[in-house]
Amino acid sequence: MTHRIKLILAGASALLALVAAGPSHADTTLSFLIDNNPDTVAAAEALVAAYQAKAPDVTIEIEPRAGGGEGDNIIKTRLATGEMSDVFLYNSGSLLQALKPTQTLVDLSGLSSQAKVDESFKSVVRADGKIYGVPFGTAMAGGILYNRKIYQDLGLSVPKTWADFMANNAKVKAAGKVAVAQTYRDTWTSQLFVLADYYNLHAAVPNFAADYTANKAKYAETPAALKGFERLKDVHDAGLMNEDFGAASYDDGLRMVATGEAAHYPMLSFAVGALKQNYPENLNDVGFFAQPSDDAATNGLTVWMPPALYIPVTSQHAEEARKFVDFAGSVEACKIMVETNAVQGPSLIDGCDLPASVPPAIKDMLPYFEAKDKTTPALEFVSPIKGPALEQITVEVGSGIRQPADAAKLYDDDVRKQAKQLGLPNW
Amino acid sequence: MTETRPRSRKSPYPLWFFIPAAIIYGVLFLVPTVSSLWFSLTRWDLSTAEFIGLENFQQFFSEPFLVKGLVNTLIYAVTTSGLKTVCGLLLAVLLTSNIFARGFLRTLVFFPVLVSTIGIGITFTVMMHPTKGIINVTLETLGIPGPGWLTNPALALFSVALVDVWKGVGLATLIFIAGLAAISPDYYEAARIDGATRLQQFFRITLPLVRPATVIVVTLSLIGGLRSFDLIWAMTRGGPGFSSDVIASVIYKQYQAGFYGLSTAGNVILFALIAIIILPFTLWFNRREVEE
Amino acid sequence: MRSVRPYVTGAIALAVAAVIFVMPFVFVALQAVKSKSEASRLDFELPEHWLFWDNLIAVFKARDYQLALAYFNSTLITVASVTILILLSAMVGYVMQRRKTVWNRVASIALFMGLMMPPAVVPTIGLLQEIGLFKTMTGMILIQVAYNLSFSTLLYRSFISTIPRDLDEAALIDGAKPRQIFFRVILPLLKPVTVTNIVVQSIAIFNDFTNPLYYLPGKENVTVQLTLYNFQSMYTSQYNLLFMNILLVTIPPLIVFIFFNRQIVAGMTAGAVKG
Fold first, then answer.
1. Residue to test with chain A: of B68, B151, B236, B264, most A Cβ within 10 A
2. Which of A104, B236, C79, C254 has its CA 20 to 30 A from that of A215?
3. Cβ B24–C145 below 8 Å, yes or no?
4. Quick one: residue A373, left, alpha or beta (phi over 0 = left, psi -120 to 50 = alpha)?
């Protein structure tokens, strides 16, 4: 009896082995790591669906990860431990430089899609003359989302100076609404007032980026740079924030500005994509303006290049990954993404135009791009250093724990650590 | 039975029993711990280590948020240890006295010790939400304004400490119950006959005689408090800002940011902290016991 | 009159204990069976529909059955490391207690260090990478053994002092080899403390968050605690699923506890007081 069972088992396993050996080209599975913002997830899924339709022997598994500082650290750790997915999404600019791309990433200069990518993007994914990433999404800006209904009801107009902004805030507060939404559970959202102020900083001190990288200028010693921290403090001191700012999340912030609970939410314009996913009925109620300076003549947008797709050198499926990434950087893919999410700014791929109708928030942004000198890339794209603790420092300032001058000094120290770890000269 | 021949008898307790454990323990624990002393003096990125002397330690003692972590660690350890000891003893006294449902109560108190720390952390974070959390909502209905347990930087660390005590007091209680059980009832009898009050009995008899258990509870909870990471990470990640950072979370954050040398320096400091606090403490306590 | 007092104090104690110690668990259980909108209110109202199974299945299915994989991994790590741990620490505790050798002093100090000193994480990661055991289950299991060896060994050493040497001698006379004395005579007698040890170590290793966080990154190796932590960001607005997840993660140690309640208490107190 047992002998017979053994025979059957042997036969079955032999058959199984034969089947498993299968046809000569095996199916490939690629792992794709993205952040967990709803718009990213939607865009990624659309891309993957389109690609899998074209290449049926490839399966792509999407894995979302946390965003913000924790996400940065997940990326760094996975790269360091060789645990990275075949394709991953991550910021461009200085955050990319912190990953030591020439050592850790696959060179993508030879991809066919690179021909149509705008040079301004290529410059932020370049290291040692080679290109390491493919754009994911459009350019975006950092500024302030505002609720148009509240503005209409209270007869407010878009502020051109910081003083105007604070005046608007006072009126909103008097009307019983939250003036400025802050969401410190997701610590990365606390950085906006500081980072979006870079246009104003650049206008006042044009050489800041270069000097800062060469260890000649510091946040604490440059009054124009200190402004960003001071603005955050002003908002806190005037009592303009939502009661639960310490525990509110990015999702809460979006909800507040979309539904009219809050008048303002300082944020990057990729939030419009998230709004489209989660609050589509309120999409038209949200507008956008650049963070004003003290002077009405200096008013422009700080621009972020979109994140990019990268391939780690440790990937076991580099060839297939390259094909997918090439697709993602193509005009066709760009159009798919634009359809899925609201556009977040001008596109960086030649031939991928913006649709005729865009949400009001984006419409508000376009004039800045069309005019001359009304945009500046954010600091992290013109300097390789960004301290990892900024978001915690800005939470402290926004919560009233730390004074701006002190915070700026702290940030300078943090930046010094990062610069030394990167092995930059002059530090 | 006598052994007349002077040759050494082979011991029935083989020394090779030590070897497997020694290899695992030595390689995976002792070696890294010793090498951390070297790596804490370097700037390290896992492939190259550049010697920088005491710079990492200088940073730890000068950068405000690193110093804060150090200070917080001490506050956290002392607070949780103190509360666990006091509450544990009081609970143990209650649960060894003649009350109804004693066994059931003991189980109830010990329950949280066994549960996932992360689960507890998440649960209490939700319950402590400043506006929607059940704790503050209940306080509102009683007319008391609820504080920002985890959002007020002055309170965050203490809120986590409270949850830590909630979770760990059961173990302290258990150890104290065992310690109390070892005290002979004759002492109490004699005291009662002499007319001593309950309070006097507690301070003159219970407290001194329960010392062995007290030492164990204080030592265990101090070490645990100094090394604490899970709960703080689950509830606040060291925030808001840096106000609830402790050395263990600083070590993790520096590791994540890729500053491996700095992270290892943190380990060495924690190491030193525990040694400096626990060793003298244990010696002091043991000496007092001898004197008694 | 005096006989009422224990009942009154008991009742008060019970009520207070219920609020403090039981209420959070009730909270978790309640939210876990509610629908998404009901759970977002985070109150103590009873749910309209008991969605226990729906929520359970939803949580298990999430991210390609990640929770099921996590359960497998956590269980494997726990069972394997506890088994090795018990065996090795009993062996060491036995020889330390019985034999007079200079190695005892060395071992004592080494073990004492293990009780107090925090492991140096980054050097350990570096070491594991060199050996090729980083982010492997084997590596994790060995780490758990190494980190828990001190407590376990000292526990055994203390308990073995209660087993009379005459038994060893008797077995020797009967012609038993040293190895056999340990496995046939001593080990069975260690059962009470072994049971306690197994329970305590299993619960500790199953609930361990920090060590897998550092040494076991990667999707295939995910453990139950890590899954719970990660799902936090996924379930930002789905409290009912988050709490169902918490419920599922806290159940196994609870089951173990209910089964071994008496042994845990007895074993802990024995070790603690004898010291």
1. B151
2. A104
3. yes
4. left
pTM of the entire predicted model: 0.81
The interface residues of chain A toward chain B in range 240-279, judged by CB-CB distance below 8 A, are 243-247
Which helix or strand (DSSP H or E) is residue A146 part of?
Answer: strand A140-147
Return d(Cα B175, Cα B194) in angstroms, integer.
30
How close is the nearest chain A Cα to the Cα of B6, in Å? Answer: 59
How far off is chain C from A84, nearest CA to CA, in Å?
8
Q: Which two tokens stand for residue C14?
A: 């019970």
The CA-atom distances, in angstroms, between A335 and each of A327, A354, A355, A362, A366 are: 12, 9, 9, 17, 18
List the single residue in C with minimal CA-CA distance to A249: C236
- Least Cα distance to A83 among C215, B251, C71 occurs for C215
Q: How many CB pairs under 8 A join A and B?
A: 82
Q: Which of A81, A189, A244, A249 best probes binding to C when mutated, by most C CB atoms within 10 angstroms?
A: A81
- d(Cα C109, Cα C38) in Å, to the nearest integer? 56
Contacts of A180 (CB under 8 A, 6+ apart): A169, A235, A240, A241, A262, A263, A264, A265, A266
Please report where in the chains the tokens 């996975």 appear, as a residue: A78
Q: Which of B45, B130, B241 sits opposite A392 (nearest CB)?
A: B241
Identify all chain B residues contacting C272, using CB atoms and an 8 Å cutoff. 175, 178-179, 213, 216
Q: Is A126 on the interface with B (CB under 8 A)?
A: no
Cβ pair C123:B229 closer than 8 A: no
Whether A90 contacts A61, CB under 8 Å: no
**What ipTM does the predicted assembly reach?**
0.81
Interface check for A102 against chain B (CB to CB < 8 A): the answer is no
Give the sign of the dihedral formed by CA A337, CA A341, CA A344, CA A346. Answer: positive
Answer whether B151's CB lies under 8 Å from A246's CB. Answer: yes
C27 contact B CB<8A: yes
- Name, in order, each residue with C-beta under 8 angstroms of C226's C-beta and a sequence gap of 6 or more: C70, C209, C212, C213, C216
Say how many CA atoms lie within 13 Å of B258 toward its Cβ.
Answer: 28
Tell me the HSE value of B7 on the side-chain side, using a 13 A CA sphere.
2
C-alpha span between C73 and B53 (Å, rounded): 41
Angle at CA A92, nearest 5°, toward A86 and A93? 140
User: Which positions ≥6 away from C240 have C-beta within 8 Å?
Assistant: C31, C32, C33, C34, C35, C36, C38, C39, C51, C55
DSSP category for residue C107: H
Question: End-to-end distance of chain C based on CA atoms, in angstroms?
Answer: 42
Domains and CATH numbers, chain C: 65-274 (1.10.3720.10)
CA-nearest of C227, C222, C205, C195 to C81 is C205
Q: Which residue from A295, A305, A239 is spatially nearest to A269, judged by alpha carbons?
A: A305
Domains and CATH numbers, chain B: 79-245 (1.10.3720.10)
Do residue A417 and residue B259 have CB atoms under 8 angstroms apart? yes
Contact across the interface for B12 and C178, Cβ inside 8 Å: yes
To the nearest whole Å, the CA of B64 is away from the closest chain C CA by 23
d(CA C253, CA C199): 9
CB-CB contact of C191 with C267 (8 Å): no
CA distance A22 to chain C (A): 25
